[in-house]
Description:
mainly alpha
Amino acid sequence: MDEPLPFASNTDGSCSANVISSNPNPTPAAPHGGQQEVLEDASELIFPDEFKDAQTLLIAEVHSLLQYAKDQNNQHEDEFHMPNEVFEKTMKYTEKFARFKKNETITAVRNHLMTKKLHQYEIAALANLCPDSAEEACALIPSLETRFEERELEAILTHIQSLISYDK
């Protein structure tokens, strides 16, 4: 039997690729019947290589950085250009979804989470989502379920909640 060609023309004129997965547990069939290798899976803390040493930012940290840039722009209008529409939309988004407003609180939350055995993804997800319970945290961040006991997660979340109440 002949090997399938890497690309085949369909009756509708479109092309499809035959991809063979080296993963013993392949993902569901890709469009046009091919299979894809798993490149990332947040529930298993599997990310592409380019994120291996990446430092995550909390939404509140992004907001602080954008606010700093905006303040610098306002002080030096002759040297910098005014923020564009994307910048302004991003500022509004981060202002709306940042769980912490004070820089001291942002630093305290990050420092607290970094003392735990959390992956960078989990640190950002916990700080940005601020789940109310260990059960909710595990539902939102599945990797936590196998890595932490419920009481450990509850202690982490209780500390974050206390910092949120201080932040107001």
